[in-house]
Amino acid sequence: MGRSVSASFHYHFDVVYLLTTTRTERAINECKRVGIEPVVCSSIPHSDKIISFNMSMISILKMFTESEFDTCLILEDDVQFQNESTAFLGGWDMVYLGGNYLPAGDNTAPQYVDGNTRRIFNAWTTHAVGYTQKAAQWIVANYDLSGIFDDWLNQNIHRFKVYATVPMTAVQQPGESSLWERAVDYTDIFDRSNDYLTQISHNK
After folding, report:
1. Domain limits of the chain?
2. Class of domain 15-198
3. Is the pLDDT of residue 3 over 50?
4. What is the pLDDT of residue 203?
């Protein structure tokens, strides 16, 4: 099986999975716009939308762990690419192409890596996250579906070497959320998160 990612895509993940519910065509077109040919994965039905989401994420990660690939990128169907920042990916376990990184509680502050990369110790949202086999195998073995996936990752992210791209490479398109069953717009959170990471310098 050959790589499913166009050579023009900046990050050269071995395979890209697209988790989709109701926005399949839009998401595929968005991927193609930046040179990605994703493996489309339909969400697993469940009466509880959160459990459906959790099960679907773990199913994709399990498929990846059973594959020949070393790295993968998992996208959600509301992903929207907006920048072409170059991430330093040497030695990474996970990489967020976008997320909510705003300070919360006593979380460790991000660390400067280079102009386009920060090491992070907390993150919410999983619309565009890359995984190595090391990270995926640990997650599959330890996640028990008891909490929503992105929050559980946030609580366990410290055990991995996790990077975030700067400026943010991908955000979530505002619109109706199939998970929350209402209109959502995280633009302000993404903008503030991007500003927060940007001001982290090598002097801090």
Report:
1. 15-198
2. alpha beta
3. no
4. 59
